[in-house]
């Protein structure tokens, strides 16, 4: 599928929040259990100046996915680590778009001196776990039973990729 990757702009936030809210309402892929406003979405994503944040637009110009990196921690000892977030619109998984976004984010990470990318994934989100593991992330640990969503307990799985 032909998509164009572009830096996130303020005009993209509403569409991005819509993609995120689909997963809030129809899956266990988010830690949030109720849809979020555009303002709350921006706060949850913690966009960081200087860190790569991208949208994938289809031929019609619709946002069909997004990904971003943000600081792993504000503590200077962790300046070379970033945390990853990536979501694709319903019906757009399995088409290589997530891999394109991840590759572009990794390239951007290297450019700003990031050496390690961390992703935290719910143990109930098997598709995301498979995606990350197939692309060079390794499981580094988990917090067992720490979360609960829709009456189901889950682990938070820590995944890491050394660049």
From TrEMBL:
Acyltransferase is among the record's keywords: yes
Superkingdom of the organism of origin: Bacteria
UniProt keyword terms in alphabetical order: Acyltransferase, Transferase
Keyword Transferase: yes
PROSITE patterns attached to this UniProt entry: GNAT
InterPro entries found in the cross-reference section: Acyl_CoA_acyltransferase, Bact_Acetyltransf, GNAT_dom
One Pfam family here: Acetyltransf_1
GO function term, MF aspect, one: acyltransferase activity, transferring groups other than amino-acyl groups
Domain N-acetyltransferase: residue ranges: 3-163
Record protein name field: GNAT family N-acetyltransferase
Source organism of the structure: Chlorobaculum limnaeum
Lineage: Bacteria, Pseudomonadati, Chlorobiota, Chlorobiia, Chlorobiales
């Amino acid at each position: 599928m032909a998509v164009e990757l572009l830096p996130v702009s303020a005009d993209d936030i509403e569409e991005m929040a819509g993609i995120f809210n689909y997963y809030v309402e129809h899956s266990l892929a988010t830690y949030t259990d109720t849809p979020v406003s555009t303002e709350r979405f921006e706060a949850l994503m913690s966009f960081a100046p200087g860190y790569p944040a991208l949208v994938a637009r289809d031929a019609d110009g619709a946002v069909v996915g997004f990904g971003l990196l943000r600081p792993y921690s504000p503590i200077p000892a962790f300046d070379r680590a970033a945390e990853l977030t990536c979501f694709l619109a319903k019906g757009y998984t399995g088409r290589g778009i997530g891999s394109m976004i991840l590759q572009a984010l990794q390239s951007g990470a290297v450019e700003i001196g990031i050496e390690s990318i961390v992703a935290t994934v719910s143990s109930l989100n098997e598709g995301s776990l498979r995606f990350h593991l197939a692309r060079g992330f390794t499981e580094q640990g988990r917090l067992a039973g720490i979360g609960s969503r829709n009456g189901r307990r889950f682990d938070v799985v820590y995944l890491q990729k050394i660049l």
